[in-house]
Amino acid sequence: MNMKTKVRTLFAVILFSCTSAVVTAQGLPGDPGGDPGGTNVPIDGGLSLLIAAGIGIAAKKGYDKRKKDNADPAQDKMDV
Prior knowledge:
mainly alpha, flat
């Protein structure tokens, strides 16, 4: 390893060591609040966006495949 790589590695180790010390140096958790019987997790926020993105990607792939399958074979021979 050259000197530049060693310096970068040392810097990364020191940075992550300091960051982990700061992250774990939090106080004891207090009362989380909320209703003890209810769920406080907003599942719909990101999940609906992921589903919409998946549908969009699937539609685009289907469109591209259909466009490729319906291409004029005579046009392909003329390009060669």
